[in-house]
Amino acid sequence: MSLDPLLLVLVAATFVVAGLVKGVIGMGMPTVSLALLAATVGLPSAMALLLVPTIVTNVWQALVGGYLRQILRLLWPFLLASVVTVWLGVGILARVDVRWLSGLLGVLLAFYALAGLFNLGLAALVSRGRYAAPVNGALTGMLTGMTGSSVFPGVAYLQSLGLPRDMLIQAMGVLFVATTTALGFSMGEQRLLSVELGVLSLGAVVPAIVGMQLGQRLRQRLSESTFRRVFLSGLLAMGAYLLVRSLAG
Question: How far apart are CA 35 and CA 208, in angstroms?
């Protein structure tokens, strides 16, 4: 991938928007960046580009809050399964037609958006069963490796546990850091990373942080529920676009 000016502008603008969303609602950076970049630079490159900004912007969220020991003690089966199965997902990514995985990402984004817009109660669905933690963790890791997204069923499972709000936010940060770090190592092993992508991913940290600062300011002026509806509607449109594109391609 050549570092042409148009690509640099595209990546910078994408992470400003993704950071803005995270600044307002506390999550969404990997989801938004994947949705925007997968449609232009392809899924594997989009997954590589989100690595450094996602880790950097979630480390603070994962470490601050005072619940880290409690989170690790409570969620270690879920987190361990999520990390281990990322390698399996990336193995699939390296061997199958990426067009179908882009379509899978589109389905996941659209499903997540519809669930949020119409309150489908995903938390109750994914929390059932004696082995809910390892099963949801394994599925989260597999889908992260295949599509770069840890949102489903990972976030829905965490929401199902009834954690206090601050603990939930910290737990999401722990999940995103763990799965994204595993994604980076596994993509490196499969030779899906390059120097150019690494440089771009590192450089994307600055626009991501700028976007987060803007989002935090916007949060003070805009209803979070209103912004969330707009965000989910946009996500639904991007998911539908990726799915149609994969089927037509």
Answer: 15
**Cβ neighbours for 227, distance < 8 A, ≥ 6 positions apart:** 24, 25, 218, 219
- Whether the CB-CB separation of 247 and 45 falls below 8 Å is answered with no
Give percent of the chain above pLDDT 90.
Answer: 56
Q: Beta-carbon neighbour count of residue 6 at 10 Å?
A: 8
Q: 186: which 2 tokens?
A: 């596994």
> CB of 56 within 8 A of CB of 203?
no
State which amino acid sits at residue 29: M
pLDDT tens track for 180-227: 999 999 999 999 999 889 999 999 999 999 999 998 888 778 777 888
Mapped onto helix, strand or coil, the DSSP state of residue 193 is coil
CA distance 166 to 52: 24
Structure tokens at 246: 């994969």
d(CA 163, CA 65): 13
Contact 22, 212 (CB under 8 A): yes
Other Cβ atoms closer than 10 A to 88: 15
174's CB contacts (< 8 A; 6+ apart) are 62, 68, 71, 72, 75, 79
